[in-house]
Specification:
14% strand; three-stranded parallel β-sheet; four-stranded mixed β-sheet; globular; 37% helix
Length: 296
């Protein structure tokens, strides 16, 4: 789960999709890569440095990953985060394996799980690059706003570079729409722009050629905002709320998507991706047809 913009529902999506997958009988591991440790807190886990965190996992390549796994719920484990994780980028900056530390660690523990879900920090630094190097597929949680499209373009440019130099098998599964207003015309326009963008990429070799806008969107729901303060998933806090229904259906949609792990040669760098978006008209202006190309 990745988006360099904060406050878009990334951690909420990480925790609740993972919890839903676990409730479906899958063995799931959450890896909290954000120094703010919000996924850890969301599950009611209080970081204990004596037990180890993701900081230890990245700092010590010889550490057994299972030694820092915390059992959270049935079928749902987590490798917790801590504020010290913010220093790891500087500590790894001169290491020759700095972009692959996480992949080497997760390769050792992957057979124990059906899904490993990484909650990335809201940045495109070394922690995020490690996540992209270790992942098979990425999902982008976002809110359907005009400016959010600019950030997605920047993110896809980074993904393109990672596939050409570090992880040629990385693919973009798609976008999850969070805090979604089904009735607003502006959000409907943004969603159509996203769908058009993915359709235009289907015949290409881009990492997002198989991407889509996931259904259903996650409706704005106050219960989703309240549940982290109780250290609970939405299924524990308000199992009948709209947020629980949406995340349950989203997890089923993700689980039904065939997982891809096709080795492909590294590609040469190409021009950055563009997402055609409608430019908002000033109040009182008469809209004119025609998109403007917006790129990272």
């Amino acid at each position: 789960m990745i988006n360099q913009k904060g406050g878009v529902g990334k951690t909420t999506t990480t925790v609740n999709v993972s919890a839903a997958l676990a409730r479906m009988g899958n063995r799931v591991l959450i890896l909290d890569l954000d120094p703010q440790a919000h996924a850890t807190l969301h599950l009611g886990i209080h970081t204990d440095k004596r037990l180890g965190t993701v900081y230890d996992l990245l700092s010590d390549p010889d550490l057994d990953p299972s030694a820092v796994v915390t059992k959270s719920r049935p079928n749902l484990d987590i490798i917790a985060s801590e504020t010290d994780l913010a220093a790891v980028e500087g500590e790894l900056s001169l290491k020759p394996d700095r972009t692959r530390r996480l992949r080497f660690a997760l390769d050792r523990i992957a057979p124990d799980y059906d899904y490993i879900v990484l909650d990335c920090p809201p940045s495109l630094g070394l922690l995020t690059i490690n996540a992209l190097a270790a992942s098979d597929e990425i999902i982008i949680p976002m809110q359907a706003h005009f400016l959010a499209l600019q950030g997605v373009g920047k993110l896809l440019e980074t993904v393109d570079r990672v596939t050409s130099k570090i992880n040629p098998t990385l693919r973009v599964s798609g976008i999850v729409l969070c805090a979604h207003d089904l009735q607003a015309s502006h959000t409907q326009e943004v969603v159509e722009d996203l769908r058009r963008f993915f359709r235009s990429a289907h015949a290409t070799d881009k990492p997002w050629s198989g991407g889509r806008v996931f259904e259903p969107p996650i409706r704005r729901n106050i219960k989703l905002a309240e549940s982290p303060s109780f250290g609970q998933t939405i299924f524990e806090y308000a199992p009948n709320a709209a947020g629980a229904r949406d995340y349950r259906a989203l997890a089923e949609s993700i689980a039904a998507t065939p997982q891809r792990r096709v080795e492909q040669p590294a590609r040469a760098e190409s021009p950055p991706p563009t997402i055609e978006v409608r430019t908002p008209e000033p109040a009182g202006a008469t809209p004119e047809p025609g998109p403007c190309a917006s790129s990272a």
